[in-house]
Amino acid sequence: MSTETYKKQNYQAGETIFKEGDPGDCAYIVQSGTVKVIKTGSSGKEVVIAKIGKGGIVGEMAIVEDAERFATVKAETKVELMMVARDTFQNRIESLDRFTGVLLKTLIDRLKTQSQKTVELAVRHVEQVNKANKAKAMKAKGKSDRGTDEISFESVDAILVDRNQITRSGMKSGFFQHGLRGIRDVSSFEAMLEEFKGKFFDVLILDSGADFDQACQIIWQIRHGYIGNNSFIVIIALADEGDKRGISRLKSVGADEVVTKPYSVNSMLEQLRSLVNTRRPFVVTNDYIGPDRQMGSENPSTNIPKFGVPNTLQLKVLHGADSVQLQNDVSFAENEINEQRVRRNIVQLAWLLERVDEANKGQKSPSSFFNRMAEVLNELSERGSKTDYAETVTQCVGMEGLVRELADIDQPSPADLAKLRNMAGSLADDILT
To answer: Which domain holds residue 280?
Structure first.
């Protein structure tokens, strides 16, 4: 296969490209059409965990290690694939410069450790959704729905932020009657922040109508660990009916669900029951921390690492966890998120350095890339100080100073750029190896 490194192959709809358990020595890039990634679930049934279209890649683990295929891939439509052999990929890695080579090899190692976990989470999610749909169907036929209607929220701590006093009072009373007695209600974001200072909450119901931009900023800050002591709190945002752009933005900053107004106690309780059983795993990207926005979509991503973060709502309702243990679980998961962000910051620094080189070659000002680089270094320093990289990220202060100086220069000198690249390479070596 080493002599046919980029061979094109065609499959008809329904044909199997490879099966779970087959030996693997190549990956496939989808040139046209769509393929399905299928995994056998715990029940023994096949579960479609992803659909990948043009530009996507399948079987990628086969080009980084000698292992069996851990999923089946079939052509959903007529497809054309480009085959990439393992030896070709390995030769390309060896030809890269030191910084890029170290970076890519580390990312490959991270991919190897996260891929199976990602697949398992996806299978679990699909099975949970199927179970929930079956329960709903049984309920519609008049059969019992144990595990949904019988959930008790007595131990849950929640906070409701709604500027409408009548709505707020009515909702609190309704929640209380249904067992959700540990609920605080406030009329402003400022009052909510005060409540956050002294209490550990499992659920936040947030009305975005008072100040939409501030509501989005608050959700973003919670997810990034800047507000409150539970960055994994279940967040249900309230939006105006028909505001599609607002709903999309609330999800883009990390809300678990968005409920349109007017809303009822029953509809909110239904959302909470659903989040107890089928909350999405979290993902960490360059600009986002929060529930996986791709899960359940037509084309979910299986390449972004996913984290099964503490769902304190579920842990209290189903397992009776105490607040001390929950805080420890949250702190442990936040450390994992911080380490993941640190690695993401290194990746972004590499990308920005490439953009600076391109701008210089095109005789364009790279100042915008330097400004972004300074922001990345600032976050890298802040997050890294909370991890095992605390001593290493002290290098970021000097780098950030140099970057801010270079941002004021239209054409930085080759010597300054070489100095910056060496500093970045040293930082990458210390963190990624």
So the answer is: 157-321
